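Q: Protein A?
A:
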Amino acid sequence: MIDIGLSKMALIGAVALIVIGPEKLPRVARTVGTLLGKAQRYVADVKAEVNRSMELDELKKMKDEVESAARDVEQSIQTGASDLQKDMEQSLGGYGAASEAAGSSPDLSTVVPAYRHPGKNWRLKRAAVPQWYKARAGVRTKAQSGAARVARFRPQKFH
């Protein structure tokens, strides 16, 4: 850029004062200032646009790399799953021989049991304590509502 010091600015101001005159100098200075501001904003906008386009190109390259990596992972998972399925079919070959002789594939539901919810009741205390000990010690084994508990332990009225 042009190196403009204080002495050069004073020389330019003195020449402008002589050439333009003292009456028009403030208006010309304002106009020059606004034009310089517009030029600076235009240059900044062009720089920002160039930076955005460069970043967009980088993001496109990165997106392509990620998509290719995802395809590779998907292919490896599919090949692993097909290998596992082949191994399972080979290992179940003796087990499902009767069903394959009938013309159907081996039924995997007989090998893997269906999910069954454990049916836990969070209100009851569960521990590795025998039931006879719980009964002897008076530990609750069944949940009771508050009203039922009050009715159970309410003192009996004598008639």
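Q: Protein B?
A:
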Amino acid sequence: MSRVQQGRFTADVASLGDEIVVFVIGMRINRPLKVAAWWPVFTAMPRMLRHLSDHPDKGLLGYQQSLAPLFLVQYWRSFEDLERFARDRDDPHLEAWRRFNARVNRSGDVGIWHETYRVRTDAVETIYGNMPVHGLAAAGSVPVRRGGDSAAARIGAAATDEPVLPPY
């Protein structure tokens, strides 16, 4: 179990440059009994994540995954890093993608999807209260600074007349 950072923290987005990429990817098992179709797709991502964790120079800043439903949120240093990883013959993605297309792409047995967002770091707001390092904070986290108690304050938005929630 990961160590809990007690208190309130935010991702250190100022250290990441002007932009990050948020990549969301998932799979849907349309025919659960066709294990031979979906199992290779299911097991390909952990291998890719191990490879990326072993090679931080590839540009993956962090990730968070869910098993129900099956999806993964990845944070990348740049779109160019993500694209380079996806197409590099020496990295594990390209071959897995080719096998998927050859074996199951048109069968309907397994569905896959992804969404890619280029995000200015000055438009990112995060909060982690009494949590282990999580999500974008994997790239670095800092304690919430004085005056940063609200999402609006942390993202630099104008204050509203809404009541302020007490810190948790």
